[in-house]
Design goal:
The structure is a homodimer.
Chain A: H1 3-13, E1 17-21, H2 38-50, E2 56-59, H3 62-65, H4 68-85, E3 90-97, H5 101-114, E4 119-122, H6 128-131, E5 141-147, H7 153-156, H8 167-175, E6 184-188, H9 193-202, E7 207-210, H10 220-227, E8 234-238, H11 240-243, H12 251-270
Parallel strand pairs in A: 1-2, 1-8, 2-3, 3-4, 4-5, 5-6, 6-7, 7-8
Helix pairs in contact in A: 2-4, 2-12, 9-10, 10-12
Amino acid sequence: MNAQQLYEQIRRKKSFLCVGLDSDINKLPAHLQRYQHPLLAFNKAIVDATAPYSVACKPNLAFYEACGAHGWAQLEETVRYVRRRYPDMLIIADAKRGDIGNTSRLYAEAFFKTMDVDAVTLSPYMGRDTVQPFLEYPGRWAVLLALTSNPSASDFELTVGADGKMLYERVLETSMQWGTPSNTMYVVGATQADMLANVRRIAPNHFLLVPGVGEQGGSLREVARSGMNSRCGLLVSSSRAIIFADGGENFAAAAGSKAREMQEQMAACLR
Amino acid sequence: MNAQQLYEQIRRKKSFLCVGLDSDINKLPAHLQRYQHPLLAFNKAIVDATAPYSVACKPNLAFYEACGAHGWAQLEETVRYVRRRYPDMLIIADAKRGDIGNTSRLYAEAFFKTMDVDAVTLSPYMGRDTVQPFLEYPGRWAVLLALTSNPSASDFELTVGADGKMLYERVLETSMQWGTPSNTMYVVGATQADMLANVRRIAPNHFLLVPGVGEQGGSLREVARSGMNSRCGLLVSSSRAIIFADGGENFAAAAGSKAREMQEQMAACLR
């Protein structure tokens, strides 16, 4: 899905919601645990319930890898299901991969060919060699970690360089030269509005993928005020608050309600 | 496998060789391509041929993920095979994962419980939150990217901070406070001997996992001189030069010969 199509979806659905499919097997409703493919059954129901209110979904690989090859297969099936049923949905593999050379090329193949998602999150530590192979697929996206919302982001991301710039600022400025706003996005945590505003200043035209709204204390209105550009330019991701809104048989309807609630707040921000 | 056992293996085998199972499906010998599980068949033969000369093996996840769930299953089978057949072999999942909080805990579970490897490579970008869950498994290892050997390592790893230290130096110094030399290793590229010596100065007691010898221009003798400590403290990884030493039916014997050649050079370094 290219940038134009994504902008169009945001306008049509009045939403910039990304539903995080952090489908932790230990937290799934009890009745699903008996299924042969519990992650897949859960994901299908969640996507069906939330698709009217969201433009993207974002499975985090950890939750599938914890179930081994069986988990990986259910992730592949989830992607196939979303592709077939919701062709206008952006699918982001939250994989935070980062390797180099031939290995990076194979990762790009794994996600863009074998699994066929639209976007993959990447760690920038090893530099351009990590990202380049992902930029060679038209209509696909590299989503780089820039500024994350966890406490230990300060260990390295906020390190001040000899030039007075923090590492995340350097990551933004350097990597913006590798791709374009049509094939690169950035992960920016929602917890600090002033830093989000700073990211938007450095990267005025890129999509920012903002997790942590509704879970880690970020407020949607704050995020919209600090991070939006003239074409929106935001994907706000929420996972636990939506997918585990209800832990019982009613989980899908509850997820739908929660997604709708967020979409309504987003519609107000988009006015 | 704990540090003591690993030191013991190095002494016994007179080797600090780690065989990189970068089993690229596109480069496998033609006769294996007809197998139902070509990656597994290849890996079994490679490990059988090289085990007498190596103390560790290191599958890189990209090459398995490129084959989807079928690839992941063959990786799991490979690990089970090595565990059963070579209980003294350290198994490193070269996954370069890096996430936070609950997600990081699930990654640790994926690799240390579900897949049951001894060690996982991790990217330090997001700080301590990424690494901590991996340090809570006795006898297992977090292997942090510090200084890599690719050209674009200079994009961020070599950035000089306001304190005059490069990012990789800060990564070393900071992360050494999270764990111990018994549960943390560092990935250090082999291409620049002076930097390897600098890493060894900062981290005198940690194992260093050094890729790039024999492939990216690093010389084994240089690496041993700059990186060894009194108990060796090195794992030198080689993949393509060993596993693709011969592209035909003779691939396993050729891999064995190449591994033996490297082991003999290592024995000389260990004297």
